[in-house]
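Hey, quick one: can you model this chain's 3D structure?
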Amino acid sequence: MSARDRILQRLRAAPQGKAPLAPDVPAFHAALGAAAPASTRASRIALFCEKMAFWHGEVVRVTRDKWPQKLHELCLAKGVRSLLYGPQSEHAAALVAAGIDGLKPYDRPVGEWKKALFEDTDAGLTATRGGIAETGTLIVWPDASEPRLMSLVPPIHFALLDADQLHDTLFDAM
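Sure thing. Here's the predicted structure for all 174 residues.
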């Protein structure tokens, strides 16, 4: 008898029973939430910044109308010569208006400019769908206007996070 046959024989001989019930995940998280004090926007921001620092991420707090100017300052401070951005993204117009030198639109298939993308791009800018305070993580949502390569390839990734989209946990974000 082969090993395969012995395994199949044991599987067929195993007692049959009911599959265990799946856990009630929403009820579990509802109980956790009820037991914990309600979070505030300020506490979520503070926790997110603390956890992001653990991952060696840098959080720069800025108002909605001042982010392009602050990004310009950061690019100068970090020596960014080329900044990859999605020309069809919601923030493209504000970015272009900021007068940042070296803007590089992601406007063609990667095969047409792979060398420049991988060798001559210092930073990329993308939006996020939100963040998770508990873990200090960003909810990135790549699409045609901002492909995933924009945050993975350049050595520096700038991510726009609206603090109003900061959630306590992944479950809360879902």
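One thing worth noting: DSSP finds eight helices and seven strands in the chain.
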